[in-house]
Amino acid sequence: MPDGAVPVLDVRNLKTIFRTRGGEIHAVNSVSFDLKPGELLGVVGESGSGKSVTMMSLIGLLPSPPAEVREGEVLFDGTNLLTTDEETLRKIRGDRIGFVFQDPMTSLNPVFTVGFQIMEPLRKHMGLDKAAARVRAKELLELVGIPDAERRLRDYPHQFSGGMRQRVMIAIALACDPKVLIADEPTTALDVTIQAQILELVKELRQKLGMAIIWITHDLGVIAGIADRVMVMYGGQVVEQAPVKDLFANPQHPYTRALLQTVPSVRGDRADRLRVIEGQPPVLGGPPVACPFRARCTHRFDRCDRENPARRDVGAGHDVACFWDAKTEAPIDG
Hints:
It is a single chain. By secondary structure, the chain is an alpha/beta fold. The chain has 12 helices and 16 strands. β11 (266-267) and β12 (270-271) form a beta hairpin. The longest helix has 18 residues, at 192-209.
């Protein structure tokens, strides 16, 4: 990834709400980030932190209603995906931005063969005829490591194991040679052996194809092994962003530190006691007017209850949204 490269994806001040009978849920609050060509950006946080909703907001995958992208810009190769027409967005989504969902069994259609489901975007977006699409579909199955690809094109999703179904989903996402691949916790439902195989596959494909990847997960161990940069989300906001080595070596936000402490570790002949983050994630019933992590934070002080901290630079490519200075171990005066 060249330094100073123009971002292939530039997200600015994204805000997404859900309208419910109980009122509005502010699921994504002023999220900004960019993605460089060939970069792998890891997005981490607890369930409900806004990871998946943010990424689905980018490319119009949320049902509207109840969802509404209320504000922001999502620039992809100079096109604002939030204001472009539906036809253009559909073409970009199927052609230049691929999406891999968490559960392949609910994402793949059980009544169509795997071959048909891989060939469909090839014929629709790339204009290939049936014969050419079939050849390309076979190549894609081979690319993602499925043996006997010609025969497996005729099989249905239920005839594949969980790991193989996830490989099929990756093949579909790669069908049109996208510039960006968004993977939404694609290994969560898989056992650790299959998970390792999928991660290795992604590394190989990234090196071979040169695409940029956004990898959504709650597993910091996965991020440590594959990401260039990490974005930590909490309460629908970005609370810290840093190069992966810097984040693990020098976490600045109390939430990031707490997340790292929950990772199981074994030292010598005994296992450390598994730690948890006390308390519950915030209810996002209105625009944030204070720090979303304050109720669970050991460094909380008065300012945290009055203001929502903006992100500030703390190092090269490293920013944090917190009123506590981790270097001096003291509050930042307002």
